Amino acid sequence: MTDSLSILFGSQARVKLLRFFLFNPSQEFTFDDISRRAKLVRRTARTEINALERAEVIKQKTIFVPHKNRPNTKVRAQGYALNLKFPQLASLQTFLFETAPINGTTVLKHLRKAAPLAFIALTGVFTREFDRRLDILSAAKKLSEAKVEVAIRALEAELGIEIRYSTFTSADLMYRVGMNDKLTRDVFDYPYIILIDKIGVRNELVSP
Q1: Do residues 120 and 143 lie in contact, with contact meaning Cβ atoms separated by under 8 Å?
Q2: Could you read off the pLDDT of 123-153 as tens digits, one per residue?
Q3: What is the pLDDT of residues 75-127, one digit of tens each?
Q4: Contact indicator for 123, 107 with CB cutoff of 8 Å
Q5: Can you give the pTM of this predicted structure?
Q6: Residue 186 class from Cβ within 10 Å (0-12 exposed, 13-18 middle, 19+ buried)?
Q7: 4-13, 20-29, 157-166: segment of lowest average pLDDT
Q8: 151: exposed, middle or buried (C-beta count within 10 Å: 0-12, 13-18, 19+)?
Q9: DSSP string covering the chain, please?
Q10: What are the CA-CA distances from residue 116 to residues 1, 132, 144, 200 (Å)?
């Protein structure tokens, strides 16, 4: 499917950028952000951004970003954002979502390399809630944040999108769920999919 999409849309880089913008519909990015987060070389990113802008899928915007040397000061910069008035926006989002391996099988393939997982829930982009705070919430009895990050980066490379995630020890996650922590409520108060639950999060969610 990826090769077919590359032919249909002109290049794999264009497919990646389309997914990047379509699955981050309310965010604005500088060119450097786009190139880095979509994992594209600058020349390729520039070519494809220009093409998407000509097609009116994205638009230029003046945005304000932190100053390099003074983080508390913001400066004017040229940015890009999804054109929410693009006529075929919803259809394009649906098509690119359904042709990407955005599913539990793909997530498990990568995250199982990081640790023996005790809990994984998917939300956000995996449930087509593109403006949610998280996409993946996970926990393990013993946690290596470095290994989780490596697994997430590999997952991002396969999907062509940025993944928002949080990971905890099993005990910490259960504590947060029991305390109705804001981060966990941002997951469980909206559509979500539980892939693994060896610690009883489901039971905690339904308990009075």
Answers
A1: no
A2: 998 998 888 889 999 999 887 888 999 999 8
A3: 888 999 999 999 989 999 888 888 877 889 989 999 988 888 999 999 998 99
A4: no
A5: 0.72
A6: middle
A7: 4-13
A8: buried
A9: -HHHHHHHHS-HHHHHHHHHHHTSTT-EEEHHHHHHHTT--HHHHHHHHHHHHHTTSEEEEEEEEE-SS-TTSEEEEEEEEE-TT-TTHHHHHHHHHHTS--SHHHHHHHHTTTS-EEEEEE-GGGGT-TT-S-SEEEEESS--HHHHHHHHHHHHHHHTS---EEEEEHHHHHHHHHTT-HHHHHHHTS--EEEEESS-HHHHHH--
A10: 31, 26, 11, 16
121: amino acid identity, one letter:
A
- Per-residue tokens: 23: 């699955």
C-alpha 139/C-alpha 201 separation (Å) is 11
Residue 198 predicted with pLDDT over 50: yes
